[in-house]
Amino acid sequence: MHPLAEKVLARDTRATARACRLADDRAGDHAAILKDLFPHTGRAWILGVTGNPGAGKSTLTDRLIGAFRKQDRRVAVVAVDPTSPFTGGAILGDRIRMQAHFGDPDVFIRSLATRGALGGLSRSAMDVARVLDAWGADVILVETVGVGQDELEITRMAHTTLVVAAPGMGDEVQAIKAGILECADVFAVNKADRDGADTAVRDLELMIALGGEVAKASGRARGHSAAALHARAAGAAAPLGGPSEGPWVPAIVRTVATRNEGVASLVEQLEGHRAWLFGTEAGAARREERLREAMHVQLRDALTDAAVVVLGPALEAAVHAVARREIDPYTASERLVEAFRAGAITPGAGA
Amino acid sequence: MHPLAEKVLARDTRATARACRLADDRAGDHAAILKDLFPHTGRAWILGVTGNPGAGKSTLTDRLIGAFRKQDRRVAVVAVDPTSPFTGGAILGDRIRMQAHFGDPDVFIRSLATRGALGGLSRSAMDVARVLDAWGADVILVETVGVGQDELEITRMAHTTLVVAAPGMGDEVQAIKAGILECADVFAVNKADRDGADTAVRDLELMIALGGEVAKASGRARGHSAAALHARAAGAAAPLGGPSEGPWVPAIVRTVATRNEGVASLVEQLEGHRAWLFGTEAGAARREERLREAMHVQLRDALTDAAVVVLGPALEAAVHAVARREIDPYTASERLVEAFRAGAITPGAGA
């Protein structure tokens, strides 16, 4: 076993931080370490926390850490949202509010680097979560900003997804992306002491009642088809996510994170989802589906990594040919895939 | 040439809508159509419009359509944000405000479907934009919500990226993701008649002055390193995006989209960026860099598509082996990549 993997299993904080960093950067012996750690993972409950900026996601995450620590569970946080105080502050200003858990050896907080164009963020989140699972986390909170494709991938990697909304932000509820809506297991209406909390709860209830069909129809709406969407919504009565998602109906909990109100109820609902996920056939089906998605992502990334290395100069030549419009990018990428499969191109060839 | 491609080039509205849909769904003869259209693309100016929900992005986009139409340019809109009124309404409520351009044959508005886990959204946006380029659009506005990896990919596909912020939304400016910040060519501080507009402008000026180093440092900040980040920011004086990005300095324009104020200045700044991009060496370098990224995305998606088809049952077997923890997902995906390359697995084998 890799010495760093051994130290992670021995719960060495510094080694765990280093393993997280290697996993995030895909540097050093990250592959060997992750392979060694994998048999020691699968124990942690991965809890996604998502929602638009300003909903109080980070404060609520902080309260959840506190609640889980009271139960003497080890907690890890993977912060993917770069605007989160967990990531070490926003671009301007000192926004670190999470000082409370700094000295606690059973809380491990890790932020992820932002990525370039090739979608490594969800892979990083998955790999870092695995390191923290092996470290011995009972609960891993993965905090994301909740909009965008890669965020959706991360959300889908969680066992249980909490979506945090807040009243008084105008389009807050409507701004919850259809894709995230389909992933939501529990909603927290945070800042529930504010005007508009009832409306936010009612909107969410309506969305849940209208069911996954609406989310899908909305996401797939063509042109200006609001009328058609409404007609469809009016006739739809399927449970959220459709029959394949099983009988879990998303819960809605009111919270005031700043005053620690509603957090116990929230934990209860989250645990309810966990019990469903690990204790029912529908839950098992959901877990398998998520695992399949994760494996697809893993394969996609492995393919891309390998292809960039193997194709090297051929890829560069294709870029220039497309730039000069000598070839269309569709044909060019088909040929690159063929070359990659045929092994006709070796590293350095054509350089 | 494919008959549908011919009709797109003849500017047949119905055929263009159909070609967009096929490109978005990757259905029918989409590949043949896109290949046929590609030689007729490259003329349109692709303008990304991004920003958090509530900043007034859609209203400003609407105003930009109006401004470009006054110049008698053909305009296309690709709406990627499912909460946008352009996509046919949000989940609840009738939010279509864009009625003004409905009857105009020189405005083509197209919304995209939301996608599953495999990141097809940016590919769809790129392909649909190419169809609309071939249709004869002079300007293609691509509206995204601006947070998340896939959104970043879409932003990077644009020639010029406009980031819309608004005062009075608390963390609005700070919530602009570091990745998007690095892509921003022009900022609109919309709702500039509201309290806090000066602060928003000042914050943006500061961010631009601090330069790309801060954006990078923020994105890559580890743990709680705000102090380190500030120290680094204080010493940093590089232009935004670093020297490789060339001398374009993002412009800031105040707008009140609802009253059509500041829109002319905004168009002027956007045109300024366009002139830089197509008229300078630094601009040419930027275009090449973006093209390379687009080609990587294209290749990644082509690889994934091919691998899912070719590997089929082997991929499914790997999912189950990982679920039973008989193999770790890293080794499993390496083996799948090898099998894909060696062609050892044929469709249907092992089923």
UniProtKB/TrEMBL annotation, chains A, B:
One of its GO terms (molecular function) is GTPase activity. Pfam families: MeaB. Signal peptide: none annotated. The keyword Chaperone applies. Keywords: Chaperone, GTP-binding, Hydrolase, Nucleotide-binding. Transmembrane segments: none annotated. Gene3D superfamilies: P-loop containing nucleotide triphosphate hydrolases. Belongs to the SIMIBI class G3E GTPase family. ArgK/MeaB subfamily. This is GTPase. It comes from Sorangium cellulosum.
